[in-house]
Design brief:
By secondary structure, this protein is mainly beta. Helix content is 14%, strand content 37%. The strands form four sheets. Strands 11-17-16-15-14-13-12 form a seven-stranded antiparallel beta sheet, with helices on one face. InterPro entries: Cholesterol_7-desaturase, Rieske_2Fe-2S, Rieske_2Fe-2S_sf, VanA_C_cat.
Length: 324
Amino acid sequence: MLLNDWHPVALSTQIATGSMLATDLLETRVVLWRDSGGVLHAWEDRCPHRGTRLSMGSLRDDTLTCPYHGWTFGKEGRCTRIPALPQAPLKAHVNVYHVQEQYGLAWVCLGTPAHAGPPAFPEFGDAQLRKVWCGPYDVRSSAPRIIENFLDMAHFAFVHEGILGDQQHPVIPDYSVEAFDDAEYGSGVWAKQCHAFQPKASKAATGGSDIEYTYRVVRPLTAVLTKHPPDTIREAIALLLQPLTETTTRAWIILALNDFTSSDDALRAFQDTIFLQDLPILESQHPARLPLTPGAEVSVACDRMSLAYRSYLKQLNLQYGVIR
């Protein structure tokens, strides 16, 4: 299923015209490169001759040259020259993947796309909200574990004390969870009417307040949190995951905020603080893959969204990064 979905792999600005960028996705080496016309390409980062990374070679005139034997490949991925055998039939072809650019990121699908494009993030198109890209953060854990942590409010008072939570206010009031299917976000599961007391809910916050949250899981490895601060417009944080392997993940975060005062660096630093507080917790969880087997872990009432997410993954028959 994940092979047929879209995954973030780089900032668009990282890939200039005439340059290459190596990355990994679902245990596959990928090379991104932008041709002279500005079009982005995504190929398997592997020469079909002897398996060398093409990204170690060169890119000139929209042609990639393998660093090992000098084989060259044109824009369609087909071999155009074998220096050691100039007259040889040119049958070799690099695996070429689907690629799109959206939300300032490059997205790759390794298989046959099950969706026309990346997950919905409608707040990105809201001109009233400022957009800031954070991360990426590399985590030694499965992508589903990271999504589940993002959906969890009960850890605020302990992992993010003094910022998103307070041990004097650990109680999580009841909230509702249900499936959704709408034109704005697509389909998935969401938690609404979520409330938590936060000493400093954002970089711009000047004091503690009760914050209302809505969480939406819009794809198996994508979640969008919307905040509803008093007397202002809703803000959003999108967590977009790049599964490198079953138990290693790169996390991308996009903020859509009503804060036009703080600098980008200050907003990133605030988000870095939050994510780096979560990091040792995530990397300590055992097993690293998310258990979907009944009774594998003990759950309580405030884990309702977590349980809904696990049920959603089971309904989709996800096998990667989980224990069935």
